[in-house]
Amino acid sequence: MLTRYYRELLNFLSRAVNDRHAAADLAQESYVRVLALQQSGEHVAEPRALLYRTARNLVIDRHRRGAVRGQAIDTDPGDEAGADFDTLSAPAASEPETAAMSAQGVEAMLAVIGELPLRCREAFILHKFDGLPQAEVARRMGISVTMVERHIKLAMQACRRCQDAQDGASPPSSP
Predict the structure, then answer these.
(1) Which of 17, 45, 75, 105 is the most exposed place for a label (fewest CB within 10 A)?
(2) What is the pLDDT of residues 153-164, one digit of tens each?
(3) How far apart are the C-alpha atoms of 52 and 11, rounded to whole Å?
(4) How far apart (Å, rounded) are the C-alpha atoms in residues 124 and 119?
């Protein structure tokens, strides 16, 4: 199987990632995964199709990682971007203080939502969290659309007060 499809797979991957070395790594990883599956006793009816599907999934994973991390930085010693690579910091959202503040903000917001009157909370959750239109919320709850709008407005005001309190570092007031 290796000699039979390797060049073909390598060319496919080279076109997909525009990097011959990365394509070779992806081809090798594809073969490793397919061979591991075969050695586990799993019957592979179409090894070529599985090999290409595996390679395609690896390319997708590579692109996703690249999108999450941003464009890859060339660490060539003569390259200025590579020289700055060691001094780069993580995004602010991954800093422990920011993460802790975010978690506290979410907890405060959930507490405010939990303190809402029962019908108000129900309408708010159905609309905002479950994504139902106001007319559907009204139908499910057996109330008018106007009443749903009032409930959602009250809940949004409570959430806004909570957010303002978080921004100003003062305790949130009750609805």
Answers:
(1) 45
(2) 999 999 999 888
(3) 12
(4) 8
